[in-house]
Design brief:
Strand order of the largest sheet: 1-4-2-3
Helix content: 40-55%
Number of strands: 4
Number of helices: 8
Shape: elongated
Order of helices and strands: HHHHHEHEHEEH
Distance between the termini: 72 Å
Structural class: alpha+beta
């Protein structure tokens, strides 16, 4: 059995060769705190410091890659579970989802403005697509009665063609359905992250001649609340 003194001398000798603490501990199995006390006065040459720095960077990259791969594996499993948990969605499911979505994001009549048609706005194309499908399948609204307007910040005025192409592709309708583009004059917050190419504006989808439909949807919302909203 090697003595503590011999372990210390071996550790110092290995450190002088430029080995890292991890590499030394593989040959000298002592507590890292003890190793730190033994080696605190050992100086390293510039090439040795460069080598150790490079090893730390490589270890950090390996650690980052391992975490990323683990995150991807977890996400893949989450997606598999979701496909099993969300099975077939029937028409009633779509009706309820669309009604709740409209409750959250749609335009409602007010006492001072009782004649409001169905209008829905969002920057998430998935929500817009659900709204459109809900209108067609559950409200029996022809696609031709749904109009689309794009709202973007004024600083993107010269980039309007990109927004038209983006929303045309996301919703799967011809470019000419997205000719209406409005520019917002409000100042952009500097802490926003969805800027540049990640910013795609917001869509307003409007069902023409739909005041009575909006009243009907509002009645659905009230009845849903009456049945299950009160604790």
């Amino acid at each position: 059995m090697i003595s503590k003194l011999a372990e210390k001398e071996l550790a110092i000798n290995l450190r002088k060769q430029g080995l890292s603490y991890r590499e030394i501990l593989q040959q000298v199995p002592v507590a890292k705190s003890s190793l730190g006390l033994w080696l605190k006065s050992v100086s390293l040459s510039k090439p040795q410091i460069t080598r150790l720095t490079q090893k730390r960077l490589e270890a950090a990259r390996r650690g980052g890659l391992a975490k990323r791969l683990q995150r991807l594996r977890v996400q893949e499993q989450v997606q598999k579970d979701a496909r099993l948990e969300v099975s077939n969605i029937d028409l009633r499911d779509l009706w309820l989802m669309g009604t709740m979505l409209y409750w959250a994001e749609g335009s409602k009549a007010k006492p001072y403005s009782p004649s409001v048609g169905l209008q829905f706005s969002n920057s998430d194309p998935r929500m817009i697509n659900i709204f459109v499908k809900w209108c067609i399948k559950c409200l029996q609204v022809p696609l031709e009665r749904i109009g689309f307007s794009i709202y973007v910040h004024e600083i993107y005025r010269d980039d309007k063609e990109r927004f038209r192409q983006y929303w045309s592709g996301q919703i799967g309708l011809p470019l000419n359905r997205f000719d209406k583009i409005y520019f917002k004059r409000s100042a952009l917050r500097t802490n926003r992250r969805n800027l540049g190419r990640s910013y795609n504006g917001q869509i307003y989808a409007k069902v023409y001649q739909s005041t009575n439909l909006n009243r009907r949807v509002d009645a659905w919302i009230n009845e849903i609340y009456n049945r299950c909203g009160v604790v």
